[in-house]
Amino acid sequence: MTVQKLLHAVDTASTWIGKAFAWLIVALMLVVCIEVCKRYLLNMPTSWVYDVNNMMYGTLFMMCGAYTLAQDGHVRGDFLYGSMKPRRQAFLDLVLYIAFFLPGILALTWAGWIYASDSLAIHETTFNATPLPIYPFKFFIPIAGATVLVQGLSEILRCIVCLKTGEWTPRLADADEIDVVNQQLAGSTYVDEDAKRDAMSKAKQIDESARQRHAGGQT
Protein backbone atom coordinates (compact mmCIF):
# COMPACT_ATOMS: atom_id res chain seq x y z
CA MET A 1 0.00 0.00 0.00
CA THR A 2 1.38 3.40 -1.00
CA VAL A 3 1.51 6.33 1.40
CA GLN A 4 -1.19 8.09 -0.61
CA LYS A 5 -3.55 5.12 -0.29
CA LEU A 6 -2.80 4.78 3.41
CA LEU A 7 -3.57 8.45 4.05
CA HIS A 8 -6.76 8.25 2.02
CA ALA A 9 -7.82 5.08 3.85
CA VAL A 10 -7.54 6.84 7.20
CA ASP A 11 -9.28 9.93 5.80
CA THR A 12 -12.08 7.74 4.47
CA ALA A 13 -12.60 6.05 7.83
CA SER A 14 -12.64 9.38 9.68
CA THR A 15 -15.03 10.87 7.13
CA TRP A 16 -17.39 7.89 7.34
CA ILE A 17 -17.45 8.05 11.15
CA GLY A 18 -18.03 11.79 11.17
CA LYS A 19 -20.85 11.67 8.64
CA ALA A 20 -22.50 8.74 10.40
CA PHE A 21 -22.59 10.53 13.74
CA ALA A 22 -23.65 13.79 12.07
CA TRP A 23 -27.13 12.25 11.84
CA LEU A 24 -27.39 12.91 15.57
CA ILE A 25 -28.23 16.48 14.56
CA VAL A 26 -31.53 15.19 13.15
CA ALA A 27 -32.21 13.23 16.34
CA LEU A 28 -31.41 16.30 18.43
CA MET A 29 -33.82 18.42 16.41
CA LEU A 30 -36.61 15.86 16.77
CA VAL A 31 -36.11 15.49 20.52
CA VAL A 32 -36.12 19.25 21.06
CA CYS A 33 -39.22 19.74 18.89
CA ILE A 34 -41.08 16.98 20.72
CA GLU A 35 -40.12 18.43 24.09
CA VAL A 36 -41.23 21.94 23.09
CA CYS A 37 -44.61 20.62 21.91
CA LYS A 38 -45.11 18.56 25.04
CA ARG A 39 -44.05 21.38 27.35
CA TYR A 40 -45.93 24.31 25.82
CA LEU A 41 -48.86 22.68 24.03
CA LEU A 42 -49.68 19.72 26.25
CA ASN A 43 -48.20 21.00 29.52
CA MET A 44 -46.38 17.66 29.90
CA PRO A 45 -42.66 18.46 30.24
CA THR A 46 -40.19 15.61 30.55
CA SER A 47 -37.34 15.32 33.03
CA TRP A 48 -34.92 13.43 30.79
CA VAL A 49 -34.72 15.50 27.60
CA TYR A 50 -32.06 17.88 28.92
CA ASP A 51 -29.72 14.99 29.73
CA VAL A 52 -30.40 13.27 26.42
CA ASN A 53 -29.61 16.49 24.56
CA ASN A 54 -26.30 16.84 26.39
CA MET A 55 -25.32 13.23 25.72
CA MET A 56 -26.22 13.35 22.03
CA TYR A 57 -24.53 16.70 21.46
CA GLY A 58 -21.44 15.58 23.35
CA THR A 59 -21.27 12.41 21.28
CA LEU A 60 -21.71 14.39 18.06
CA PHE A 61 -19.01 16.87 19.04
CA MET A 62 -16.48 14.20 20.01
CA MET A 63 -17.05 11.69 17.22
CA CYS A 64 -16.77 14.33 14.48
CA GLY A 65 -13.34 15.45 15.67
CA ALA A 66 -11.41 13.05 13.45
CA TYR A 67 -13.50 14.03 10.43
CA THR A 68 -12.79 17.71 11.04
CA LEU A 69 -9.08 16.97 11.33
CA ALA A 70 -9.18 14.91 8.12
CA GLN A 71 -10.72 17.90 6.33
CA ASP A 72 -8.19 20.30 7.91
CA GLY A 73 -11.13 22.15 9.41
CA HIS A 74 -9.81 23.02 12.85
CA VAL A 75 -9.11 26.67 13.65
CA ARG A 76 -5.56 27.91 13.16
CA GLY A 77 -3.76 31.26 13.00
CA ASP A 78 -4.19 31.49 9.24
CA PHE A 79 -2.82 35.02 8.95
CA LEU A 80 0.64 33.56 9.66
CA TYR A 81 0.26 29.96 8.55
CA GLY A 82 -1.29 30.79 5.19
CA SER A 83 1.70 32.88 4.13
CA MET A 84 4.18 30.04 4.68
CA LYS A 85 5.47 27.64 2.04
CA PRO A 86 4.33 24.00 2.31
CA ARG A 87 7.59 22.74 3.83
CA ARG A 88 7.50 25.38 6.54
CA GLN A 89 3.83 24.63 7.18
CA ALA A 90 4.64 20.93 7.47
CA PHE A 91 7.53 21.56 9.84
CA LEU A 92 5.38 23.76 12.08
CA ASP A 93 2.54 21.23 12.04
CA LEU A 94 4.90 18.37 12.84
CA VAL A 95 6.38 20.18 15.84
CA LEU A 96 2.93 21.04 17.19
CA TYR A 97 1.59 17.53 16.63
CA ILE A 98 4.49 15.98 18.53
CA ALA A 99 4.71 18.61 21.28
CA PHE A 100 1.01 19.15 21.99
CA PHE A 101 -1.32 16.93 19.99
CA LEU A 102 0.08 13.51 20.83
CA PRO A 103 0.46 14.08 24.60
CA GLY A 104 -2.96 15.72 24.82
CA ILE A 105 -4.87 13.09 22.84
CA LEU A 106 -3.09 10.20 24.55
CA ALA A 107 -3.98 11.70 27.93
CA LEU A 108 -7.59 12.21 26.81
CA THR A 109 -7.91 8.64 25.57
CA TRP A 110 -6.35 7.10 28.67
CA ALA A 111 -8.23 9.29 31.14
CA GLY A 112 -11.44 8.79 29.17
CA TRP A 113 -11.08 5.01 29.41
CA ILE A 114 -10.61 5.17 33.18
CA TYR A 115 -13.50 7.62 33.46
CA ALA A 116 -15.81 5.35 31.43
CA SER A 117 -14.69 2.18 33.24
CA ASP A 118 -15.42 3.74 36.63
CA SER A 119 -18.83 4.84 35.37
CA LEU A 120 -19.60 1.32 34.15
CA ALA A 121 -18.46 -0.23 37.44
CA ILE A 122 -21.08 1.70 39.39
CA HIS A 123 -23.67 1.76 36.58
CA GLU A 124 -23.77 5.54 36.81
CA THR A 125 -27.05 7.25 36.00
CA THR A 126 -28.34 10.80 35.75
CA PHE A 127 -29.72 12.62 38.78
CA ASN A 128 -33.34 13.28 37.93
CA ALA A 129 -36.80 11.79 38.30
CA THR A 130 -36.16 9.53 35.31
CA PRO A 131 -32.56 8.31 35.72
CA LEU A 132 -30.76 7.46 32.50
CA PRO A 133 -27.57 5.37 32.21
CA ILE A 134 -24.53 7.54 31.59
CA TYR A 135 -21.79 4.94 31.17
CA PRO A 136 -22.58 4.07 27.52
CA PHE A 137 -22.15 7.72 26.61
CA LYS A 138 -18.89 8.05 28.54
CA PHE A 139 -17.31 5.25 26.50
CA PHE A 140 -17.46 7.57 23.51
CA ILE A 141 -14.74 9.66 25.16
CA PRO A 142 -11.91 7.11 24.69
CA ILE A 143 -13.39 5.98 21.36
CA ALA A 144 -13.35 9.56 20.08
CA GLY A 145 -9.84 10.03 21.42
CA ALA A 146 -8.68 6.91 19.58
CA THR A 147 -10.20 8.02 16.27
CA VAL A 148 -8.61 11.47 16.55
CA LEU A 149 -5.30 9.85 17.50
CA VAL A 150 -5.32 7.64 14.39
CA GLN A 151 -6.16 10.62 12.20
CA GLY A 152 -3.45 12.63 13.93
CA LEU A 153 -0.86 9.96 13.17
CA SER A 154 -1.99 10.14 9.56
CA GLU A 155 -1.49 13.91 9.64
CA ILE A 156 2.01 13.44 11.04
CA LEU A 157 2.79 11.11 8.14
CA ARG A 158 1.36 13.71 5.76
CA CYS A 159 3.72 16.31 7.26
CA ILE A 160 6.73 14.02 6.80
CA VAL A 161 5.81 13.42 3.16
CA CYS A 162 5.47 17.17 2.60
CA LEU A 163 8.89 17.79 4.16
CA LYS A 164 10.38 15.34 1.67
CA THR A 165 8.48 16.40 -1.46
CA GLY A 166 7.74 20.06 -0.78
CA GLU A 167 4.04 19.55 -1.56
CA TRP A 168 1.03 18.58 0.49
CA THR A 169 -0.51 15.21 -0.25
CA PRO A 170 -4.02 15.81 -1.66
CA ARG A 171 -6.87 15.19 0.74
CA LEU A 172 -10.08 13.38 -0.05
CA ALA A 173 -12.57 15.68 -1.72
CA ASP A 174 -15.68 16.48 0.27
CA ALA A 175 -18.56 18.90 0.01
CA ASP A 176 -17.32 22.47 0.44
CA GLU A 177 -19.20 25.65 1.19
CA ILE A 178 -18.81 26.65 -2.45
CA ASP A 179 -20.76 23.53 -3.47
CA VAL A 180 -23.60 24.51 -1.15
CA VAL A 181 -23.64 28.05 -2.54
CA ASN A 182 -23.80 26.75 -6.11
CA GLN A 183 -26.57 24.32 -5.25
CA GLN A 184 -28.66 26.98 -3.51
CA LEU A 185 -28.23 29.46 -6.34
CA ALA A 186 -29.01 26.85 -8.97
CA GLY A 187 -32.29 25.99 -7.26
CA SER A 188 -33.36 29.56 -6.59
CA THR A 189 -36.38 30.90 -8.45
CA TYR A 190 -35.92 34.47 -7.22
CA VAL A 191 -32.56 35.19 -8.89
CA ASP A 192 -32.15 35.65 -12.63
CA GLU A 193 -29.53 33.70 -14.59
CA ASP A 194 -27.10 36.61 -14.98
CA ALA A 195 -27.13 37.29 -11.25
CA LYS A 196 -26.61 33.57 -10.56
CA ARG A 197 -23.57 33.39 -12.83
CA ASP A 198 -22.12 36.56 -11.34
CA ALA A 199 -22.62 35.33 -7.76
CA MET A 200 -21.13 31.90 -8.55
CA SER A 201 -18.13 33.50 -10.24
CA LYS A 202 -17.43 35.75 -7.26
CA ALA A 203 -17.88 32.87 -4.82
CA LYS A 204 -15.42 30.73 -6.79
CA GLN A 205 -12.88 33.56 -6.84
CA ILE A 206 -13.11 33.94 -3.05
CA ASP A 207 -12.82 30.18 -2.58
CA GLU A 208 -9.82 29.91 -4.89
CA SER A 209 -8.10 32.83 -3.16
CA ALA A 210 -8.57 31.13 0.21
CA ARG A 211 -7.18 27.86 -1.15
CA GLN A 212 -4.10 29.62 -2.48
CA ARG A 213 -3.46 31.30 0.87
CA HIS A 214 -3.80 27.94 2.60
CA ALA A 215 -1.36 26.34 0.17
CA GLY A 216 1.31 28.82 1.15
CA GLY A 217 0.98 31.07 -1.84
CA GLN A 218 1.24 28.32 -4.44
CA THR A 219 -0.73 28.85 -7.65
TrEMBL record:
The complex comprises the extracytoplasmic solute receptor protein and the two transmembrane proteins. This is TRAP transporter small permease protein. The chain crosses the membrane at residues 21-42, 91-115, 135-154. The lineage of its organism: Bacteria, Pseudomonadati, Pseudomonadota, Betaproteobacteria, Burkholderiales. Residues 193-211 have a biased composition (Basic and acidic residues). GO terms for molecular function: transmembrane transporter activity. Residues 193-219 are annotated as: Disordered. It comes from the Bacteria. GO terms for cellular component: plasma membrane.
